Amino acid sequence: MQEFIEFTLGGLASGIIYSAIALSLVLIWRGTRVLNYAQGGMAMFTTYVALTVINDTGGNYWLGFLAALAAGFALGAVLERGVVRPTVGKPPLNSVIVTIGILIFIEGLAGIIFYNGQSASFPPAYSIVSLKVGSIALGVSWNDVFTAAAVLAAAVLLAALFRYTTVGLRLRATAFNASVSRLLGVRVGRVLTLGWALAGLIGALAGVLVTPTTFLNPNSMDAIFVLGFTAAVIGGLDSPVGAIVGGLVLGVVLSYVGGYLSADLIELAGLAALVLVLMFRPSGLFAPTAVRRV
Amino acid sequence: MNDGSSVAWDEGESEPGAGALDVGGITVRFGGLTALDDVSLSAARGQVTGIIGPNGAGKTTLLNVLCGFVRPQAGSIAFEGKELTRLRPHQLARHGIARTLQGIGLFRGLTVAENVMVGANGSARAGFFAALFGTPWSDRDEQRLRRRAIEALDRVGAADLADDLPGELAHGQRKRVALARALVAEPRLLLLDEPASGLDEGELPEVGALIGELAGSATVVVIEHRMDLMMSICQRIFVLDFGKVIADGTPAQVQADPAVTAAYLGAERESAADG
């Protein structure tokens, strides 16, 4: 029982990170039908920005945290406007290649600017010592609680932005039908840039939150990106709620695999989950099948 | 070769006070196919101007040219004296032009009220950061758009549908919502693409009355192949056939024109059969 609680809560704690990456992928997919393979690389880069700010300010974590979010927002906007926009309306392969190109470029750039041959460690916001109830270890720390709270708060703010503001209305309208939106006077280009910026921000949040549990190097987000992508596919790629739930489900399943079977199997199990979902429910576990249109 | 269309153009020019919308010499080719051949027409403010013609005559292409979806190889478009030939679709709203789509084009995942609010969004003032941080201004903006959306829905008699999703509505209701979405921006030029398609006979008089009412505040251009409706709502009709204007005039003049009868006979029988 003790183990079960530990694995479940620990799984939710890592799952919420996959949720955040998945959410950033869904934001872009809904708006532009582009799968952003550079999302992990972007998060890695903005985490380096945070680390640099933290080091330069004598250890001010929160300045670094905000710097990462701002950098993620700006990076998303710049990439959309600069290199992704020209692929709009072209065959989907073009955008795939462009985002993979961005990934390679960003990882190379981080190698030149930040990487000195050694992975860096990134500080957590709060204690990473496991919490206990009586003598039972819960498998989660205050930092995990903060991580979950931060991701959920970001998701709630995003949902409110989409639901209750005119900017959100334009974001939703464009996601449903860009050409009709354009006809109605929506500046679709700006809306798409904003979508990428928000996705960059959420990705940056995920990077800052997850890196204390890994190490930071130019490839450190690759595996997390794959799991985030899996979470997004489980959730159906079109559904922000599905992305959150998909991440949590994946986190718990992988935690059981790691805990009860072997930690070596975690990444393999993640890929197996991806393949299974793509084979049997390609529109995701949560997408009503009737919604699919040819 | 261009007799019909150049006659129409001359008449349009010579009518004093006519021509809020002036279209001259529009030619569109898709590959080897000439979809529109030197088409000229004009539409006066406060009137309903109809464009009719058998299927494939180029009606929808013409509408696509008017709203910037299709770039003509030749010709000019001016609205209220402003040259609009190089217009891009998102600039329409800014010039006071709204269009409905044959396929209706409502946003599936947005409520009826939200659909209409998108149509009014050109006047939304709150910037991104104001909206992101939920400042009072953005909130008021949202409220104001919603009020205007409800008013527009009320004008087309669909205010009670505000919170429904488009998928839940009957075809005729969806048409009304699409019309409300075009109206809410208070356009000075309203382009309606087959406003009666898919409606049953009983709904036509109401739609006709509504369109007539809209002409009170805007220049209205209607494309439609339901002759019966067009004859009752239009003050002036242009007849397209194989990409050319073959006749224009009042409904009575057009109906009496032998060229029109020749071009339109088959199609008219067809539309009578639908109704």
Number of DSSP strand runs of chain B: 10
State the shape of chain B.
globular
Largest interface: A-B, 25 and 36 residues
Q: Which residues of chain B sit in consecutive blocks of at least 5 with pLDDT less than 50? A: 1-18
Computed over alpha carbons, the radius of gyration of chain B is: 19 Å
State the order of secondary-structure elements of chain A, H for helix, E for strand. HHHHEEHHHHHHH
How many runs of DSSP E, i.e. beta strands of chain A? 2
First CA to last CA of chain B: what distance? 35 Å
Mean pLDDT of chain B: 79
Indicate the structural class of chain B: alpha/beta
**What is the number of helices of chain B?**
10
- Oligomeric description of these chains: heterodimer
By CATH, the architecture of chain A is named: Orthogonal Bundle
Output the CATH class name of chain A: Mainly Alpha
CATH architecture level-2 label of the largest domain in chain B: 3-Layer(aba) Sandwich
Shape of chain A: globular
* Text of the CATH class of the largest domain in chain B: Alpha Beta
Q: Beta-sheet strand percentage of chain B?
A: 15-25%
How would you describe this structure to a colleague?
- The complex is a heterodimer of chains A (294) and B (275).
- Chain A has 294 residues and is mostly helical.
- Chain A has one domain: ABC transporter involved in vitamin B12 uptake, BtuC, CATH 1.10.3470.
- Helices cover 71% and strands 3% of the residues of chain A.
- Chain A has helices spanning 2-32, 39-56, 61-84, 92-113, 142-164, 166-176, 178-183, 188-210, 222-235, 240-261, 266-280, and strands spanning 130-133, 136-141.
- Chain A has a two-stranded antiparallel sheet.
- In chain A, helix 2 crosses helix 8 (188-210).
- The radius of gyration of chain A is 19 Å and the shape is globular.
- Chain B is of the alpha/beta class.
- Chain B folds into two domains: 1-96 and 188-275, P-loop containing nucleotide triphosphate hydrolases (Rossmann fold, 3-Layer(aba) Sandwich); 108-186, no CATH class.
- Chain B has ten helices and ten strands.
- Chain B has helices spanning 3-14, 59-66, 112-119, 128-132, 136-155, 171-183, 204-214, 227-233, 251-256, 258-274, and strands at residues 21-30, 33-43, 48-52, 74-79, 82-83, 97-99, 189-193, 219-223, 236-241, 244-249.
- Chain B is globular and about 55 Å long.
- The two termini of chain B are 35 Å apart.
- The model of chain B is unreliable at 1-18 (pLDDT under 50).
- Chain A binds chain B through residues 157, 160-161, 164-170, 172-173, 176-177, 179-188, 194, and chain B through 67, 89-94, 98-99, 101, 105, 107-110, 114-115, 117-119, 121-122, 124, 126-128, 131-132, 134, 138-139, 141-142, 145, 181, 185.
